[in-house]
Amino acid sequence: MDDVVAIIDELEDLLLSKKRGFFSGKVYVDQEKVAEIIAQLREAIPQSFYDAKSILKQRDELISDAERKAEGIIRNANAMREKLVNESEVLAQAQAEADNLIRGTREYCDQLKYSVNQNLDTYLYQSAVQLNEAMVLIEGVRSEMRKRSNKDER
């Protein structure tokens, strides 16, 4: 690297040592000498400079590739999030419908129980009335039989 600095210093000395044109203010240099110094400069640049340049290019490509992959991952994540949100909404709707069905079924069962209890109560009441009428009839028949029995014994 010291060679590069020395060559740049040589080029600078060459340019600064030349006299400027009186009217134009421009410096005229020996083109061959400048080309020779530039060639020396190219040769003096260490290979690591070119390697670093290649590494920087690879780094830029890796970063671009990583950014593309990251964008793909983000797109996939957003799609998955959207899908999960939609599935969550569907699940919530299904749960609401299931809750409504359960509530409706419970109400129907409650009404059915009430109706069965009412019908059973009516049936039991009618049975009790019929049993009561049968008991009255039986007591009447027994009473009649006792009366006849008492007449026959005399």
Chart the SSEs and their pairings.
Elements (H helix, E strand, L loop, with lengths): L1 H16 L13 H14 L2 H107 L1
Helix pairs in contact: 1-2
In words, what does this structure look like?
By secondary structure, the protein is mostly helical. The protein has two domains: 1-45, no CATH class; 46-153. The chain is 89% helix and 0% strand. α1 (2-17) runs antiparallel to α2. The longest helix is centred in the middle third of the chain and has 107 residues, at 47-153. The mean pLDDT is 87.
Overview in brief:
The protein is an all-alpha fold and 154 residues long. Helices cover 89% and strands 0% of the residues.
End-to-end distance, in Å?
158 Å
Mean pLDDT: 87
Tally the helices: what do you get?
3
Helical percentage: over 70%
Describe this protein with a few key phrases.
154 residues; mainly alpha; 2 domains; 3 helices; 0% strand; rod-shaped
